[in-house]
Specification:
With 312 residues, this protein is α+β, with helices and mostly antiparallel strands. It has a domain at 212-310: Urease metallochaperone UreE, N-terminal domain (HSP40/DNAj peptide-binding domain). The chain contains 9 helices and 12 strands. It has a 4-stranded mixed sheet with strand order 1-2-6-5. Strands 7-8-12-11 form a 4-stranded mixed sheet. A two-stranded antiparallel sheet has the order 3-4. Helix 2 runs antiparallel to helix 3. The radius of gyration is 28 Å and the shape is elongated.
């Protein structure tokens, strides 16, 4: 995916004021609007201008774009980090149809701009704010209270975005799942005309774990076993965030086989499952004793792992 330099598209500096950006867009729109322009690429150019203005005229999108894109030039290959917007607080605001713009715009901003208010004749509820919050898998098992740092956007005297941090204490419920939303009432934008404040909606994502992988409410884990444990069967201890469990490995287990332990995934009603992917690990033949054991197995076990190939 190519990085799009929206400032170059509008022909303004990165420190341009909101008024400078608006004037540049209007000037170029008069030149390239398909209804009046005689330029061959007017329609394509107008689409680029609309996309650039949709980002740079929106204080929050501009702040996010500035933070993410420092050091990039237009046309360069670009791939945003998967959690680039974690902790970045976005309000509702007017939405854009991301399908009208490039893949670059859609990947960065396609999920933003959801409206979060409703109003009556005299009172209007404040906009909801949205932010992604990164939690550990252990938080879902145990529940906790975490201090969350967010970056919200305000404007300076020239209408340029300024990042302002704020810190909140958030209660994480037991059983919270990836993609779930934690709602903090009254922590969004202030209401109008005496209306109530909007809410802050925290979308939960999990940090990577050295052993566990989350899929919905199920947990996946590699289970490394010795050849004799796989051949003879065994009972092994498995350490989970909420304590130790015992798992029975059946005799003649093979690498690639999966064991399902019901009810040992993320807590819920019903809870998820624990899926164990068996990996048979061979001890290295690096000592005379180990080589002797392997040579004995080679002589005395009538085993050919490629036998089925000869009958194909």
């Amino acid at each position: 995916m190519q990085y799009k330099d929206y400032y170059s598209v509008l022909g303004v500096n990165r420190d341009a004021s909101a008024d400078d950006i608006k004037k540049a867009f209007r000037r170029l729109a008069r030149k390239y609007h398909p209804d009046v322009s005689r330029e061959q690429d007017a329609e394509v150019k107008m689409k680029e201008l609309n996309e650039a203005y949709a980002v740079l005229s929106d204080t929050e999108k501009r702040a996010a774009y500035d933070q993410l894109g420092r050091g990039y030039q237009g046309g360069q290959d670009f791939q945003p980090p998967p959690d680039w917007d974690s902790g970045f607080e976005f309000s509702g605001g007017t939405t854009h149809d991301s399908g009208d713009f490039s893949d670059f715009f859609s990947q960065l901003f396609g999920h933003m701009g959801r409206r979060g208010f409703s109003g009556g004749e005299m009172k209007m509820r404040g906009e909801d704010h949205h932010a992604k919050v990164m939690l550990d898998i252990e938080d879902s098992f145990n529940g906790t209270t975490k201090t969350i740092s967010l970056r919200t956007v305000k404007t300076d005297e020239r209408g340029r975005p300024v990042l302002t941090p704020r810190t909140l204490s958030v209660k994480i419920p037991v059983g919270v799942a990836e993609g779930q939303t934690i709602r903090l009432a009254g922590q969004g934008s202030a209401g109008f005309g005496g209306g109530p404040s909007g809410d802050l909606l925290l979308e939960v994502q999990f940090n990577s774990h050295d052993k566990l992988h989350v899929a919905g409410r199920d947990l996946h884990m590699a289970l490394r076993v010795a050849p004799w444990e796989a051949a003879l069967g065994c009972v092994l201890p498995i350490q989970l965030p909420n304590g130790e469990i015992k798992v029975r490995v059946p005799a003649n287990a093979q690498s690639g086989q999966q064991l399902r332990v019901r009810g040992k995934g993320l807590p819920s009603t019903p809870p998820g499952d624990l899926l164990l992917d068996i990996q048979v690990v061979l001890p290295p033949a690096t000592t005379p004793e180990a080589r002797t054991l392997y040579e004995t197995m080679s002589r005395e076990l009538a085993f050919n792992p490629r036998e089925e190939l000869h009958h194909a």
